Amino acid sequence: MHVLHVASEVFPYSRSGGLGDVLGALPAVQARLEGESLGAEVTVLSPWYAGLAGTPREVWRGELPGSGGTLGPVRAGELREGGVRFLFLDLPGFARPGLYHDDDVERFCAFGRAALPLLSALGVRPDVLHGHDWQAGLAVAHAHLAGWRTAYTVHNLQYQGRWTLAEARGWTGLPDWAFSPEGLEFHGDLNLMKAGLVFADHVTTVSPTYAREITTPQYGEGLDGLLVRLTLEGRLSGILNGLDQERWDPRRDPDIRPYADATGKAANGGALRSEFGLDAAPLLGVVSRLADQKGMDLLIRALPELVQDWNVVVLGGGDPLLTAALTGWAHHPRVAFVAGLNEALAHRIYAGADIFAMPSRFEPCGLSQMIALRYGTLPVVRETGGLVDTVPPDVGFRFAAAEPEALLDACRLARRTLDDPAEWRGRVTRGMALDFSWDNPARHYLELYARLAGLSAETPAAPR
């Protein structure tokens, strides 16, 4: 079986967050499982960004269809790593620094429209095309119209790839009937997330709880009616993300003082305190995008009381107002804030903190809580999405309401529990023993692909 993943980023070549992490880990595990009955040959297609962290070998150069007729000359490159073939499509709109820009809908329409002609030119015809998030929605639509089997994963429903339909429909290369409310039209806009939902043979999300949540008005981002229909048709399910076990391993992590169990954490906590000049109080860590989704405003509003019990170390970037608020706290002797991304510091926070706060308003899956658990740092999380599926109540500390006081109550319980060494050690030990490897999710996806590939071919039809 041959599987093709289509995504806007893939670690370590391009990455802005969790999507890149998933595409850096899942295909490699699927390729490693090829020797099993459900194994697969795996290819990944992604844009060839100007700042790509790698040098692909050029394997094709020519012209591809675009909104103005043809795009050309364009090229494709190839890298092979861990049994996976990575293809990179170099289009004019991607020849500048950075991954994402204000014209992304137009750029990823060009990418999605050109994907199948490129694959045809390279002689690639997978058994299943698996698209990821809105940037791959148009590729899924074109694959469906070509009679290919398709899967589509929603990593975050909030980001949908919308643009005024009157301007954007010419970018897509789709027939007129695709722009109805049953198709890509959404309140007068083109919606590329909806393209994937409507055209895919099966839709997954990155946790079972999030798969249920997005069928409700609270979490459905205006698409809950469509998602309810997919659920009733048996075309929507949740498959929990995994964690890269080699990249996140406290026993071999070069950025920390390695340890194998709960007793080894103390040295990392001391090092983190020394790094930021903090006192002997226990450590609360945060590594996060600074965004409303992540509940960082709840954390900031809780800081006046949190610092009575905890040193607070925050690493993250994003919303300027949240950044400014945290910067204003950086003078406090128990608060350390580092703006932006810093991979090595993230590892030190996971290893050195006692608890790890994730007060998310919604969380499709989340990787940070899995990393924290693997590093023996107990998560304090809101009961939503993948946080429910990964943080057992006898390990971490969960709270229901998206309110500062609820977060504080959970942190107060954590502080009281820390004073009971046996109880605390038991929670840490149970957390570090949890299995978040990609093996089980990879097998679930391979089983899904096998079911899809076994379906009898149908004539491509209008959106269901």
Q: Overall 3D geometry? A: globular
Mean pLDDT: 94
Radius of gyration: 23 Å
CATH fold-type name of the largest domain: Rossmann fold
Biggest beta sheet summary: 9 strands, mixed
Q: Helix amount, in percent?
A: 25-40%
How many distinct beta strands?
A: 18
| Spans where pLDDT lies below 50 across 5 or more residues | 456-460
Question: Can you identify the CATH superfamily of the largest domain?
Answer: Glycogen Phosphorylase B
Domain count: the total is 2
Measured between the Cα atoms of the first and last residue, the distance is: 27 Å
Strand content: 15-25%
| Tally of contiguous helical segments | 16
The level 1 CATH classification of the largest domain is: Alpha Beta
Class from helix and strand fractions: alpha/beta
How do the strands line up in the largest sheet?
3-4-5-2-1-6-7-11-12
CATH architecture of the largest domain: 3-Layer(aba) Sandwich
Structural features, described:
The protein is of the alpha/beta class and 464 residues long. It has two domains: 2-242 and 440-453, Rossmann fold (3-Layer(aba) Sandwich), CATH 3.40.50; 262-435, Glycogen Phosphorylase B (Rossmann fold, 3-Layer(aba) Sandwich), CATH 3.40.50. It has 16 helices and 18 strands. Helix 3 (137-145) packs parallel to helix 5 and helix 9 packs parallel to helix 14. The protein is globular. The model is unreliable at 456-460 (pLDDT under 50).
